Amino acid sequence: MSLAMTSSTPQQLARPIVKATATPLKPILKSSSLLNSKRTSDDAGFDGDGMESPQSPRKRQRVEFDMNNIEVHEIGIRSVDEVKQEIRKALDRHDQGDDEDYDILKQTLSGKQSPYDDEEDEDPDPTLPAKRRQELKIYLIALASFSPRLGRSCDGLVKGVLQCQWLGRDEQFAKVYVQFLAALVSAQGARLTQVLSSIVDRFTDSRPSDWAVPNYPTVNRETVQERLHVALQYLIKLFPAAKPVLEHLTATKYPFHDESKRMHLAYVDNLLRLRSYCPDLKTEIMDLIISRLVKIDVEMQMDLDDMDDRLTTMVAMALRSARENRNQDEEDDDESDAESVDSDESEDDEYTRVKTAKENIEKMDSILDTLFELYTPSFADPDSDEALEAFEDLLSEFSNLILPTIKSRHTQFLIFHFGQKSERLMDAFCGTCINIAFESQRPMILQQAASAYLASFVARGAHVPGHIVVKIFEVLGFHLDQMRSLYEISCRGPDVRRYAPFYALVQALMYVFCFRWPDLIKSVPDEVDTDDLSSYLGQEIEWEPEIKDIMRRNIHSKLNPLKVCSPAIVEQFAKLAHQFGFMYVYPTIESNKRLRLSQFSAGAYSSGGALRDLSFDMNDESWQHKRWVEHDYLQWRPIPGLDRDEQDEDSDEEEHDDENEEVEEDTATDDEAGEDE
């Protein structure tokens, strides 16, 4: 949900922090007597009395900066008043078209050059280098007084200040710098976007070299992030109009999909920190992260689909090698990655494809790790309101971003894992999928996807209890009967274009049956050992009421779903159903081999291809390699003796007698050729 820009200007939202007079400043810093006091335990500082650190995503933050007066007359070599005179002179001459002093001022305020760099000292003072490093503080304090003059004519000067490397300097400098930003926006409201942009630009920084300043002690990453977000928090508090601006900036500055894992992780981490103290952007930030994660997921899947077995094996080997070397220092990894990109430009296309796929997989895995870490504390008590609230957020992301995206296969691990934490959460997920699958105003492709996800969750969810499996099967069966009754009125044969929701639902139920058939059984003889699946073979099994009738009515209907659904699923269903005495569908399958659909349902539609993209691979066990759902995912369990050929001899003879026959069956669209559906 986008936030509307407030009509108030930044000048109206907060009074100027500094005035263009000689009166004492009112900065974030405490009184001058504390300028040289010992650092507090908070490395990032900013002396926010009563302010909580913007780290925990569990609490809404309160920002209460100490705005006591500070009289800073001399930090470095000259006083504030002296520097003010210099700045006034440079700005006055700039207005008159003389930019010599103005250009020097730009260089100084960018932090790249001191006004004394070219001077020689006759009597060197050993403390002089330290004093000169403090010069920029004086310039920023003085420049804040001239904020009302820093309009469009001073774009170059402002740009230089915003490009100054302030995060890697000392704590006092960081405070002075943030005070200047607040004063600038207070006086020049149009610069709000420019100021916030300079901060969001730092979201991808993650190595000391990104913020290091010569002759300053190294500042660690945590301190840098803390300074960055205390500053952003402060500006948001002063200027509510910053929120919609930030929503736009965080989206436009999100790293491109082909940028490094390091940049993506740093950006996501900073977005989550912003989310922790800016609840108005909580939904928008998570939408952004999930949507970009889905894009990486899809691209990765498409890359792998286009590879042959040899290349996918190379990807697996590259990932294994990377995991084995993960004990190497992270900084070294980052540097070596950067070097390898340059050195790999001359490599062949195959190597580039493997390298790209590997990097996308690692990128996706790392972001998912971050999201699992974020959400896990909320599900400590799966039956709590907190857990339900967090899961509703995930359901929103699932419904709006994951569900509509074909070929997204891994982002849904979040919903698959946390959705099994309690029956209350299972009910929420199943209910959401059912509502989407059977709301007529929904796009057909979305209805099919909802059926597929629901079936996959129920079939493969290791913690989904049997009574829920039965309940979902019956609910889906009820809707399936309603569809059949509606479609059969005009049906003259299978037509996937017209009856796609029906076929998707039949396929979903067959898939659930293949994995959860033991849960659909009401009773078995005492001879059956429930731990030995082969012991069910040849036994008189009593199925749950309506289960068998649901499948019989719909599979043997005029819509003929076995002709349209995925051949792999149809084959496995037929085998299990026959061996356990549930149904015997081989005659229909054999008959369908001689059935050719009309041209309107040809191609991928005639072999279930249109449904497979939304469905399931019976042999897909990729999830078992993913640590997030390792214990949540029900793997395929082969049944000893099930594969022996026990098909009816009559069916076998029928196949040989009629193997060259072909029957053409009309579909409901034959009389509507050329019409848009």
Automatic annotation (TrEMBL):
Molecular function terms, GO-annotated:
RNA polymerase I core binding; RNA polymerase I general transcription initiation factor activity
Q: Could you tell me the superkingdom of the organism this chain comes from?
A: Eukaryota
User: What spans are recorded as compositionally biased (Polar residues)?
Assistant: 1-12
Bias (Low complexity) occurs at 25-38
Give the span(s) annotated as Disordered: 1-64, 108-129, 322-356, 639-677
Q: Which InterPro entries match?
A: ARM-like, ARM-type_fold, RNA_pol_I_trans_ini_fac_RRN3
A Pfam match is RRN3
Which GO terms fall under biological process for this protein?
Answer: transcription initiation at RNA polymerase I promoter
Any GO CC annotation of this UniProt entry: nucleus
Output compositional bias ranges, type Acidic residues. 116-125, 329-350, 645-677
What is the similarity comment for this entry? Answer: Belongs to the RRN3 family.
Protein name from the UniProt record: RNA polymerase I-specific transcription initiation factor RRN3
- What is the species listed in this Swiss-Prot or TrEMBL entry? Daldinia eschscholtzii
Taxonomic lineage of the native organism: Eukaryota, Fungi, Dikarya, Ascomycota, Pezizomycotina
